[in-house]
Amino acid sequence: MHAHLPDTTLFYDIDGAEYDPGSGELLRKPVLVVLHGGLGFDHAYLKPGLGPLRDHAQLLYVDLRGQGRSGRPPLETCTLEQMADDVAALCASLGLPHVHVFGHSAGGFVALHLALRHPALVAGLILCGSSPTVRPIIEDEAAEPAPSLASRAGPKTLAVAGRVFGGDITEESVDDFFREVGPFYAAPAHMHVPPRLTALSTVDVAMMRHFMTAIAPGYDLRPRLGGIAARTLVIVGREDWVCPPRASRALARGIPGARLVVLDDAGHFTFSETPAAFLDAVVGFLPPAATV
């Protein structure tokens, strides 16, 4: 389905009924807006892991502007702030005054902006494998050294990663990246998971390049985290070197009342690496269905 915004279209997909008959009563489940990472991906890689949440919430998956099946407006309009405003406009068009928001990785960057720019809309925030900044976080460095790709991968893999992280983002370099580096996004026991998930999604190389070179370098919300009023759950895999645990600790420290859950034996794709522990954390955070 597509929502028509002033300068683009936004693709969304709904999974799960809004109403649950319950035990003889009609119950309304919370709406969970799901924002993918990348940037440059679409929402499809999230569905296997988040799908079971349909029993507890109505899932609203969104392809952010310039990605997936959403429209391709000029790249200069593709900012984190505008993506957040797009999601707010989508919710308004669907008659949703209050939602919970799940943001994975860079989708968490958008979710944070949404909570700051539209506080009345965001009743709850789930930040999964995300970060308040792309700059180095030195807090906790001595007590908890960050996981690293260099400690696990060989020279060839590190060279491929360095090419993309250095801004040389082409169809060829991205293909090499997913083949060589992709498996390392998971914990050692789950390296088969990332290729299976990323195969489900389309990748927009132009958007990935735009994110890496124009959006990410200026991203730092640490000074503004105290202004987030929404109930917040922060989830991270202990083996995540992309957005390491210390980044999630910074989120939990900065957002008033935030709860932090660190999942053992998981990397960047907690929802599909350790699904039972992930679902326990999220279901425990979501409000129960309410009587209509």
From TrEMBL:
Residues 30-273 form the AB hydrolase-1 domain. InterPro entries: AB_hydrolase_1 (IPR000073), AB_hydrolase_fold (IPR029058), AB_hydrolase_sf (IPR050266). Keywords: Hydrolase. It comes from the Bacteria. It holds the Pfam family Abhydrolase_1. GO terms for molecular function: hydrolase activity. GO terms for cellular component: membrane. This is Proline iminopeptidase. It comes from Cupriavidus plantarum.
